[in-house]
């Protein structure tokens, strides 16, 4: 078991708010973890979780509470090619809008539920950004992530897949 030196941010986004949040996290967090990679989810499947890293799911919600289109393949692979992910440690940044009260931040919550079903362990609480609050998602997510990394990284020992 080792303390992870790499954070991989898996990004699901339609209009780039989640992408910009991930980029802000990557710029602001380098003193807290040696390597931060921003990786849009396009074309990924569960094999991404074979990498020795701490993971951050950073995704918005679209449609009727769905994950963004670019996140669909990865999300569906968690169902169609399920694997035990007991070695995975992850956090969640969920972007949404409370104007959709029934499905607020469902995209991130859906990933959280599925990863946890497969044995992955979430570290810390889910961070939710509400577009109706008029606050800057990138600023808030990166401030949250600094606290999150300080708290969880020492405890986030990963087991090589
Ligand atoms: C067509 C559409 C549908 C949306 N549906 C939801 C929803 O069901 N639940 C929610 O919490 N937010 C919903 N949102 C809000 C977005 O998740 C939010 O604006 C987010 O910041 C967009 O991030 P992105 O630019 O990374 O895609 C929706 C936005 C749009 C434009």
Explain what you see.
There is one protein chain. The protein has 161 residues and is an alpha/beta fold. The protein has one domain: Flavodoxin domain (Rossmann fold, 3-Layer(aba) Sandwich), CATH 3.40.50. Helices cover 30% and strands 20% of the residues. The chain has 4 helices and 6 strands. Strands 1, 2, 3, 4, 5 and 6 form a 6-stranded parallel sheet that branches. Helix 1 crosses helix 4 (137-152). The protein starts with 5 loop residues before the first strand and ends in a 9-residue tail after the last helix. The relative contact order is 0.23. Residues 13-18, 60-62, 65, 68, 95-97, 100, 103-106, 131, 137 line the site of flavin mononucleotide.
